[in-house]
Each structure stands twice: as C-alpha cells, then as structure tokens.
Design a protein that fits this description.
By secondary structure, this protein is mainly alpha-helical. It has ten helices and six strands; from the N terminus they run H-H-H-E-E-H-H-H-E-E-H-E-H-H-H-E. The strands form three sheets. It has a two-stranded antiparallel ribbon. A two-stranded antiparallel sheet has the order 3-4. Strands 5-6 form a two-stranded antiparallel sheet. Strand 3 and strand 4 form a beta hairpin. The chain starts with a helix and ends with a strand. The structure holds zinc ion. The site of zinc ion has 5 residues, from helix 3 and helix 6.
C-alpha cells in the first residue's frame, strides 16, 4: 500500500490538530520510511519477481525489523514516547502509536502472505489484494481521499502556499501511486531503496504545507 498510508496521516490531523502533517506522515508511513535504509545496509532483503502479484513485482523475503507486528508495536511505542516528550499530551501520543500500527494492518490487506508477526518466526500473513489491481487502486484512493477530506475539514490555508502546495502534494502522491501501479518493474534493489528515500521529500513538503495552514 502507498497513498493509503498517507491518507491515515492526513486523517489523523482531525484527531491531533496540534501535530504537523509532516510528523503524522512520519508516523503512518514510518515502516516504509525505515525500510529503504535497512535495504541499503543489507539488513533487510527484497527480490524482484515480475508477476508475483499483479500490482507489484516485489517479493518481500525478509523484513523483520521494519514489518513484523512485534517490531511495529515497538516503533509505535518509540514514536509515541517521542511525541510525549515533545508535546506532553497522552492522546496525541496514542494517536501517533496507532498511526504507526495502522501501517501493518493496511499492508496486511494488500500484501501476499509475507508479513511476519515476530522477527525470526516463519509464519507469514497477508490477504493478497495486490492480485486485484482495480480493487487495490480503489481501496488506496478511498483511504487517501477520506484522509484528505478530514485534513481539509480541519485546516484552512492562510496563504497561497498553504493552498496550492497542498494541491501539489496531493497530486504528486497520486502520481507516484499511478506510476507504482503501471510503471515497469524497478531496475534493481538500489533503485528501490533510493526511490524509497525520496519519500522523505513528501514528509518535508507536508511540514512546509502544514506551516501555512491553520486550524479551523
Ligand atoms: Zn509497508
């Protein structure tokens, strides 16, 4: 899943209006922000197997630190604690924890059975919606647009940056989703990892956009 996770970040703004959209993106997309770095350091592994699912050719053979449920809980607690240190608000800490956790459950819907519960465990989970491209696209879009709707309901722009940069951000995310779904398989693991790192640009952009919007 891709933009669905960003949809969660957008939606969380309604529950945690004092938290920047950039930080909410970090939480909802944390596992996939961490994963490219673990690939680059050869700590986690993926292989490219065209046809393994109809949506993505990626075979996630080994990603226990970024994507096992136990570790995801750990990352969620860590980010929740960080939030507590930053804003001293239990509700916001819980929302950040849940945003991190949501990633695993959304991935569970689309991934083939490749998601582990614990590092080192051999059982794998995933409902495999990636074999149904149209339903996948629809689901991603529903999650994403619902999140965007809540963000618009919660905030309003106080200048042109807040207005137009948000539209650009939304457009770029949708574009990447489309390219992910219809583009050719990536040329190699390094390309996947570096393309993954580019997601930090969306995080930076979200911090920037959010600074130019105010709570309604
Ligand atoms: Zn993921």
């Amino acid at each position: 899943m891709f933009i669905g996770h960003f949809g969660v970040g957008f939606a969380a703004k309604k529950l945690a209006p004092a938290i920047s959209l950039g930080y909410l993106f970090i939480a909802s997309q944390f596992l996939d922000l961490l994963w490219p770095t673990l690939l680059l350091f050869d700590i986690e592994h993926v292989i490219i197997t065209p046809g393994i699912t109809r949506v993505t050719p990626l075979d996630f053979i080994d990603y226990p630190y970024s994507h096992s449920l136990l570790m995801v809980c750990g990352w969620g607690i860590l980010l929740g604690l960080l939030t507590w240190l930053l804003v001293k608000n239990f509700k916001y800490s819980m929302i950040i924890f849940l945003c991190v956790l949501s990633h695993w459950f959304l991935d569970l819907i689309v991934h083939r059975p490749d998601l582990p519960l614990l590092p080192g465990d051999t059982s794998r989970f995933g409902f495999g919606l990636w074999n149904y491209p149209l339903i996948t696209a629809l689901l991603e879009l529903i999650f994403f647009l619902s999140g965007v709707y809540f963000y618009y309901k919660t905030t309003t722009s106080n200048n042109n940056i807040g207005k137009y940069a948000l539209i650009v951000l939304i457009g770029l995310l949708i574009l990447i989703q489309i390219m992910n779904m219809i583009g050719p398989p990536p040329p190699g693991i390094n390309a996947i990892a570096w393309a993954g790192q580019l997601q930090w640009l969306f995080v930076l952009m979200a911090f920037w956009v959010d600074r130019h919007r105010i709570i309604k």
